[in-house]
Amino acid sequence: MATSFYDVGSVTLTNGSAVVTGVGTLWQTALITNGFVAVEAPGNLLPILTVDSDSQITAEQEWTGATGTYSYGILRQTDQMQDNAENSRALAYVISEIRNGTLFKYDGAGDLTSLVLHDSKPKGYSYLVLEGAAAQLYVKASNAEGDWAGPFAYGVGPVGPPGPVGFLDFKGEYDAGEAYVANDGVRYNGSSWVARQPTTGNAPPNLPTTENAYWSLLAIKGQDGTGIGDMVAAVYDPQGRQADVFAEIDEKQLDLGRKPISSFIATGVETAAVFEIPSGCFSVLLSGTVITSAAGALTYMRLSFDGGTTYLSASDSYNIGRLDMSGSTISHSDAGSQTQVVAAINSGLAGVPCKMSLCVDSPAGLAVARFSAVSYALGVGTMERRFEEHGLSRGVGAPTHVMLFTSSGTFNVGTRVHAEAF
């Protein structure tokens, strides 16, 4: 399943142009069809108009920032992803009915609440309701307003007669007092047998005989092994290669890409969550839902570079650029030096979920860590607010731990954040 956040490669933008050129990107392969391109540079958010190839996107707006190549992130619109999944399910259903020869050509289709929009159609007009697991068909019984017949099951015929008894009806261990009929199966002396005719008290033959008047051999018992005792390392692994084999498997799993490391599930009393970055990994991605108990509380992020002993919190620890979109209002600013990073915003109401995605990376050779945090606050009337902070930390080397903490109150039950390293 495609994730909602994509940030592979980089993008090249030209001031005054709506063309987004990817470097090392696979946009069509990753099934990106919609969303926003957010760039780690002063400028505007770029809503996606079309995805032209793996390395080119046409935006709905022209880039207002400076020409250059930048790190970026694409946040898909999850409602569109859900619509695509539902459309795929409906299409699969229709294809199945075509193959079964039970598809009736209807005149209109939609949900049940939209049926009244077709009340004035003439007699014989058909309307297919696509809701739930099975479709239902309504047909105008006359020209009268709203005179519908139905619903009728669509694409499902009547239940047919029961089929013939299968080849084998297995009854378990043979019982001399049980009445068996043809095709009953039993286990006798470790082998499996099938009845040739009705019988009671007539046992299967002893091997090597494979058939009598009542039974035929179905599967012969396997030969007993001749070994005894346990498989011990001194005999079966004299060179001690077991650890080498599992180390190789772990290395191959790590090479596959992202590696789940931990998850934080709040119980309602926590004020902070810490995620350790495994040795050898240079990036960590945190994603999930944050719910705070205090109205207007923010969720902050700080980094540790000394194994979690201390976390950067000086006034110039993080150099931040900020993007804020509330409804149709978009603003971008240079927030300058800060003591922490805003990982998740709050809608202003206690207990309202906020979707967040935070990426921290420190590629080999860099003396600082880069970060990009994107969050959505929902549920304030029809208003949705999107907030992003991105930039660099002042830590030296690769970070070892990421800490999330709330500015006030606690993390409510329902807060779930998953961490992956790569």
What would you say this structure looks like, in words?
This protein has 422 residues and is mainly β. It contains 3 helices and 28 strands. The protein has helices at residues 78-100, 233-236, 242-255, and strands at residues 5-6, 10-13, 19-23, 36-39, 46-53, 56-59, 68-70, 72-75, 108-110, 126-129, 136-140, 148-153, 169-173, 184-188, 191-195, 215-219, 259-265, 272-276, 283-290, 299-304, 318-326, 329-338, 341-344, 354-361, 370-380, 383-393, 401-406, 416-421. The protein has an 8-stranded antiparallel β-sheet, with no helix packed on it. An 8-stranded antiparallel β-sheet has the order 17-28-19-24-25-26-21-22, with no helix packed on it. A 4-stranded mixed β-sheet has the order 9-10-11-12, with no helix packed on it. The longest helix has 23 residues, at 78-100.
Looking at this protein, list some descriptive labels.
422 residues, mainly beta, Elongation Factor Tu (Ef-tu), domain 3, 4 domains, eight-stranded antiparallel β-sheet, 3 helices
- Describe the global form: extended
- Can you count the beta strands? 28
- Summarize the biggest pleated sheet: 8 strands, antiparallel
Domain count, please report it: 4
Query: Uncertain runs with pLDDT below 50, 5 residues or more?
Result: 247-256
Tally of alpha and pi helices: 3
Helix content: under 10%
Strand order within the widest sheet?
A: 1-8-4-5-6-3-2-7
Mean pLDDT value: 80
| SSE class | mainly beta
Radius of gyration: 33 Å
| CATH domain fold name of the largest domain | Jelly Rolls
CATH class of the largest domain: Mainly Beta
Strand content: 35-45%
Distance between the termini: 19 Å
CATH architecture call of the largest domain:
Sandwich
